[in-house]
Amino acid sequence: MYSISDIARLTGITAYTLRYYERIGVLPKPRRQLGNSGGSRQYDDLDLRYIRFIYGLKQTGMTLEDIMSFTKDGCLLTEREEDAPIIEDTLHSRIDILNRHIADLDQRMKQLEEVKAVALEKRAFYSAMLEKLEKADHIL
Amino acid sequence: MYSISDIARLTGITAYTLRYYERIGVLPKPRRQLGNSGGSRQYDDLDLRYIRFIYGLKQTGMTLEDIMSFTKDGCLLTEREEDAPIIEDTLHSRIDILNRHIADLDQRMKQLEEVKAVALEKRAFYSAMLEKLEKADHIL
DNA sequence: GCTTGACTTAGAGTCAGCTCTAATTTTTAT
DNA sequence: ATAAAAATTAGAGCTGACTCTAAGTCAAGC
């Protein structure tokens, strides 16, 4: 079991931000130490894995609103047993959402590839120029 | 020659934002129609190409500050003749900056790959479950 | 020459996404 | 049992990145 500061250390997200994400609904409410909703937050490895997944989306350019559109409809990505019953309907919906998300990731990667291609081109241009200059130096 | 609204249309960046980028130094000051700094902004294809490159960086998650750290030291990525004279020193510096930038892009792509791997895993999990359910239906 | 429309500026306003404060309670170590 | 460290909350404040307003200038068509 992890505390909020353990999670902060393990993920690189501040405790402030973790509480903020919970408040606005990006992350689900975790269990608490005492009573149904008192005491400190307690996280397990499944929570950690989920938080890392969500943070990955954020870090790769997805807005919190977009992230929420994937996670609402009943917290679709947690894989936790106590979540919505797994019936064919929700399964189809989950798979659809993942498909859309994968397509979005592919789009982002394509864009990065394009930017990288331009950068490589520029580097090749400068390298060629440098080589010419060095040859000229050698002759003199 | 393009006006600011041509560039806005061609890149998808608003004219407001283009002026803002120029103001804070993300984009260089373009030529003007009349006098040295009066009249409307005029852009050519090299400017357009450069603006698209910069916007690509932004869209793939780089902050404006990070972008500026690549472009300062004398507007290192424009390839325009009237820029800093091409001497060995600045060439080395340009190549270094591009190398750092390419490394950064690789890092971002790696992160996207990781997020995608998790998404694919989740999808496979749900698909397998769906298949099982369908088989069960068939038997009944 | 006048209107229309796109351009110009400085500066104010907006919104997302944190980030922190203050006052309080809970947890942990001795 | 008590002190220190870490957690809790609501809500205020901050920063980055736009986004717009207002007041004015310029160029083209009628």
Automatic annotation (TrEMBL), chains A, B:
Residues 95-122 form a coiled coil. Keywords: Coiled coil, DNA-binding. PANTHER family: REDOX-CYCLING DRUG-SENSING TRANSCRIPTIONAL ACTIVATOR SOXR, TRANSCRIPTIONAL REGULATOR, MERR FAMILY. It comes from Paenibacillus taihuensis. This is MerR family transcriptional regulator. The keyword Transmembrane does not apply. GO terms for molecular function: DNA binding; DNA-binding transcription factor activity. It comes from the Bacteria. It holds the Pfam family MerR_1. Gene3D superfamilies: 1.10.1660.10. Residues 1-73 form the HTH merR-type domain. PROSITE patterns: HTH_MERR_1 (PS00552), HTH_MERR_2 (PS50937).
